[in-house]
Amino acid sequence: MEIGKIGPGIFWHAPDKKTVKPAEFAEILKEFLVWVDKKQKEAKEIREAVLRGEDVPLHKMVVEFGKAEVALNLLIEVRNRLLEGFQELMRMQV
């Protein structure tokens, strides 16, 4: 019984012939800001619905507030890391 070699197609897939434009950092950051804003607005809508006396399930309210909090904390951490990186660049000697 002869065992043949494994072809590269099993573990490696060639990229499509289409040219894929890499996302720019500014574009990624913009999409992230839009996502965080969306989460904040969703939490605000639920809060306003509760204040109007609408029947909003408690678990939905808690989950949405949690998502908004996590998104905002992530945004703050990204900002902090960007500032640290910028400050590090400014300290570099030319």
What does this molecule look like?
The chain is mainly α. The protein has one domain (25-91). Helices cover 65% and strands 0% of the residues. The protein has helices at residues 25-51, 58-91.
SSE diagram, text form:
Layout: H1 25-51, H2 58-91
Helix pairs in contact: 1-2
Mean pLDDT: 87
Describe the global form.
flat
Q: What is the CA-CA span between the terminal residues? A: 65 Å
Q: Characterize the largest beta sheet: strand count, sense, and whether it forms a barrel.
A: none
Tell me the series of helices and strands, N- to C-terminal. HH
Low-confidence stretches: none
Compute the number of structural domains.
1
Q: Report the radius of gyration as a whole number of Å.
A: 23 Å
Helix content: 55-70%
Oligomer: single chain
Instruction: Give the beta-strand count.
Output: 0
Structural class: mainly alpha
Please tally the helical runs, counting DSSP H or I stretches of 4 or more residues.
Answer: 2
Provide the β-strand percentage band. Answer: under 5%
Brief descriptors of the model:
94 residues; mainly alpha
